[in-house]
Amino acid sequence: MSHWTEELFVEHPEVFAVTMRQRVDDAPEQVEQVLGLARDHGVEPATALDVACGIGRHAVELAGSGVTVRGVDISPAYVETARDRAAEAGVADRATFEVGDMRDLDAVDGEYDLVTNMWTAFGYFDEATNEAVAAGLHGTVADDGVLVMELANKEATMANFRSSFAARDDGVLSVEEGEYTPATGRMETTLTLFEERDDGYDHVGEVSWDLRLYAPAELRRLLERAGFSAVHLYGGLDGSELERESHRLVVVAEP
To answer: For 105-140, what is each residue's pLDDT tens digit?
Structure first.
């Protein structure tokens, strides 16, 4: 049986790509903030590795800022889209993309001033594999570089937990249903998308995923076990203080 990451990102990439495209406009500000966080920790990155880069939302913007970027994603469809976006933006000479699995980061050669892992693209696997992915991330960061992760904050997610909700954005209706298992710390989510028409909605598709959510203290300990010497936690890419109510958890980890 395929792992859900293969079913979602490889076998049926078109459904989640709708959600990615809705967030493209957020990328310029987010990348500016990521670079600001890196500078706050003494890193002016010349090179970057974007792990689980998707359609290249952040990688293309990083390249536009003068950083030489390598994007890795398990989805051939997303990698192809990312290459097209880099070419359209005129940064294909600084942004390269390849198909790769975050479980195989040992196959990624070189070390990078900045390694990014954005939009809760961590916690996909069982406990041991997630630990191995964290160790792989550590191995890609240069000695004087940083890892920047941006995830959902479990504390706020659980405090405001809703088993289902719907939202409409740019003509797309999203219906999300979730079930949390306290014993494992995992959230199983099903996302169903509908495209707005004059006479109602057309069903676009349905995808599911099973994600390990990490409380801030849990993630810090995991990254320390992976070899990071200092793990700084924030409530957003703007460097705001992390609070229980912070919807996002941002990590800046030093090797």
So the answer is: 999 999 999 999 999 999 999 999 999 999 999 999
Residue 10 lies in domain? 4-153+214-254
The overall pTM is greater than 0.85: yes
Q: What single-letter amino acid sits at 136? A: G
Task: Determine the 3-state secondary structure of 252 from DSSP.
Answer: strand
Structure tokens at 106: 């040992």
Which residues 6+ apart lie within 8 Å of 199 measured at CB?
Answer: none
**Do 206 and 242 fall within a single domain?**
no
Residue 124 shares a structural domain with residue 188: no
Helix-strand-coil percent breakdown of the chain, rounded to 5? 35, 35, 30
User: What per-residue confidence (pLDDT) applies to 1?
Assistant: 65
Cα–Cα dist 104/102, whole Å: 5
Cα gap 80→230, rounded to integer Å:
35
DSSP 37-57: HHHHTT---SEEEEET-TTTH
Using DSSP, state whether 83 is helix, strand or coil. helix
Q: Residue 100's closest CA among 30, 9, 210?
A: 9
